[in-house]
Amino acid sequence: MGKLKSQLLVNAAMRLADKAVIPFYVLQKGDPDSGIIFIEVEEDAHHSRLYTSAINFEGFYEYRAISGDTPLLRMDIQQMIEREIDRDPDCWVISVVGEKGLQLFTQIT
Predict the structure, then answer these.
(1) 51-59 — which CB contacts under 8 Å span 24+ positions?
(2) Which of 37, 75, 94, 104 has the smallest number of Cβ neighbours within 10 A?
(3) pTM of this structure
(4) How far apart are CA 44 and CA 23, in angstroms?
């Protein structure tokens, strides 16, 4: 599979979220063609995980938890997001609720 434009990927995930009634928020719009996508997955009211997309050697998208194996406090995730935006202001930041929210992206890619 080739690389999809970032905005196309986000829009497709947003449509799937709407159909599945999964809360989906675009916190920052990035470069429509090639912006890196960060996905905050809300575990509960106080904890989240942060994922990023990457293309593996076979050409398929993967979503890796850059926040580690255990959920972190949401304020710690927000600090991570702010650092990523400072490094790359063209990135996308998406917030979804629960593991089903992350699966929206894996369904597309």
Answers:
(1) 51/102, 53/9, 53/105, 53/109, 55/3, 59/1, 59/2
(2) 75
(3) 0.90
(4) 13
pLDDT in tens, 62-96: 889 999 989 999 999 999 999 999 999 999 999 99
What is the distance in angstroms between the CA of the first residue and the CA of the last residue of the chain? 8
Q: Which helix H or strand E contains 97, and what residues bound it?
A: strand 92-97
What are 40-65's pLDDT values in tens digits? 999 999 999 999 988 888 878 888 99
Q: Is 83:7 a contact under the CB 8 Å cutoff?
A: no
Reading the block at residue 40, the tokens are 């905050």
Report strand pairing: 92-97 vs 37-42: parallel
Q: Specify the 3-state DSSP secondary structure of 82.
A: helix
